[in-house]
Amino acid sequence: MLDLKFIRENPHIVAQAIKDKQEKVDFSQFLDLDEQRRNFLQELEFKRRQLNQLSSSMAKFKKQGEPTDQIHHQLKDLSQEIKQIELNYKKVYDQWEKLYHFIPNIPEQDTPLGSSEQDNKTIKIWGEVEKSKEGLDYHQVCEKLHLVNWQSASIISQSSFPLYLGDGARLEMALIMFMLDLHQKHQYTQVFPPFLINRDSMFGTGQLPKMEEDSYVIEKDDLFLNPTAEVPVTNLFKGQIIPEQKLPVKLSAFTTCFRREAGSYGKETKGLLRMHQFNKVELVHLVKPEDGFNSLEQLLSQAELVLQQLKLPYRVRMLCRGDMTFASALTYDLEVWAPISKKFLEVSSVSYFKDFQARRIGLKYQPENGAKQFIHTLNGSALATPRTMIAILEHYQQEDNTVMIPEVLLPYFSGQKVINSSEQ
After folding, report:
1. pTM of the entire structure?
2. How many helices (H) and strands (E) does the chain have?
């Protein structure tokens, strides 16, 4: 969340951010409620001082044997006034807090204006993108080689949940292990977190309240299925004060992610492209504020390295303000090229949140000299597996529609070099 002092001193900046990010929050009402809330607090403080003074006078009069009827009535009336002010304050506070939780992070100045992915800015291209080839698209090759069984998955669960088979399952696990091993070489500490997340943790990283309708929730326990490893891994440090000498903290995590994709109506949802359940390796950085932008570039380069070692062409896009997430100040997307489908596919988002998440979860660091400060948080997918698999199935597909295994994945295939049919 944003610093309240910043909001009060820079309402025009916050109002512009709300507009640019296309958030639906009545900021004028928030400012009005904020003023009412502060006035009620001042009034309560004044009335409580009066109550304490009268209570002291009552005790003094009793000790001296003087009449206390008048003070007793004053105390009773003042107590009733305070109760009513407290009720009014609570009503205003609840409305104020609800609006406060919907105020987004401020986009960085150099993020492009725009309302959708069409307005994102390409800042880098690696490899031969937009080069097409003939063959079966990813969905067709999955069916021909029996890599994913959607029919069985829908019987076990429902549509848009995957069931990988044979070499499809091996390729999925090989990708996960390759990415974890690669990040281990860059001094990441590996985390394997819970897949059920409580409401406070979902709020802490900015998924709630805005994204609740896109989340799977176990209502009886009020627990959410993990939407991304960003949530449990960042919340690992909730409420902590980290010594400066222990920064930066760099963590990697593989998790299965669950999303309803409530906003996907009208988008292509075939096969591996958009699913309710998918696997992802996530990187999380906790850094000092002055190290934030360098850390962002490092995160981006390490996500890119996965695609480079897989020899998959891609582009890097800076997201426009209307396409950024609620909590992000700056986001880059990595989009891999699928040459048979002839389209770019997002496989990673790398985001810088500044102190927005840290304020929500109460995460600070202690400088060697000076007062405690909020940490800056960053994270990035490195990478999500389904669309990475799509790119592999199309880039490495041979004339007979079998698929060569990328060189960096061979150690995970026990000598196997080609993906053939997995039909049983």
Report:
1. 0.94
2. 12, 16
